[in-house]
Design a protein that fits this description.
By secondary structure, the chain is of the alpha+beta class. The protein has 13 helices and 24 strands.
Length: 425
Amino acid sequence: MELKTYKIADIGTVVGGGTPSTTEPSFWGGNIPWISPKDLAGYHNVYISHGENYITEKGLNKSGSKLLPKNTLLFSSRAPIGYLAIASNPICTNQGFKSIICNEDIVTSLFLYYYIKQNLEHFKLFGTGATFPEISATSLSKIKITIPSIFFQQKIASILFAYDNLIENNTKRILLLKQMAENLYKEWFIRFRFPGHKADRLVASKLGKLPSSFRVANMGSLFDFYIGGGWGNDDMSDDYPVEASVIRGADFPNVSRYDVSSCPKRYHKISNYKSRQLVDGDIVMEISGGTSEQPVGRTILVTQEMIDRFKDGKVICASFCKLIRLNKAAVSPYFFYYWMQYLYDTRIIDRFQLQSTGIINFKFEAFLRKGLVMLPPMEIMQQFDNYIIPIFKEINALATQNEILATQRDLLLPRLMSGKLKVTK
């Protein structure tokens, strides 16, 4: 397999991005996908069609952004360096990207995606800046890469993409399962079409009209125990001897899909770890660091299957979170988790938000005193669990498959790229 060395400038065009003025409404809400590094945080698919925001033609023309063609390789050049995805349609980005429009006669975007992924630490060396390192278009253009012919690029990329395609399909199934569980909750506890609902009449309550068999409980009355999270130390020492993973608010989207790969491993004091070790049925709640777009109050449900995904089953929540241990004789953790999701999605929980110095915190003590929970009879919650628990187990099984596939792909990646694993015609 013959290899040739090129500069990035020789195999494509490096293009920056820009942001239209956020104070001009006519620039936003159009039909042009606009990507920021935030859209790629926790994003594991190879291709991307859009992010959270869209801009108008006017916004595009009034910003430094460019409309990038399909198959452009998006490469985040700061905060952080190295998020990667391929545009599956015309797209534009903010200034946090230096994207590469490939000369497909020399390199395919899919091969370059895997090449940079394999050599990302080398690419990061070209970043400058003490606080937030950034790779300039000039620096990126000068980086040298050594690649095979188009034929071998296509063969190598197709092998690797087969793994990513399976991972993406499993991820879609996970999202469908999550939606199934949410729909069941809404059917039973929002529309009140639970088993036996016809024998129940609606009566007035503090939360509006509820089935007569339901009751309203104070939030704090359902908690057996709660404590703030911890962060530990970077390095092991006599004072910090316990290695355990930490779930941060930023990890919630991934962890809810049983993907724990983003959770850092830290070292903790024995007493801090013992008092904060997560167990089956715990709720982790984010209580600090929110924004107006993403308020605090998000939650995840901890299950034994989730715990088992962490090294030695050791995991705590981070300092900006709260560990909540429920009285399981009074409430099902699965039901409570979806009740908290309901409060968050409807923004009912916003009454407990407290904003100061641009950061939103959560008034947890007020939440304990004034927060309310709708409680169905325990037998109804148990029937709900009987449907929901198998869904959570299936999500974990799919996440386990994804972990195995990703491991196999990552083992193949350097061997294919280096030529140690031969690809023949």
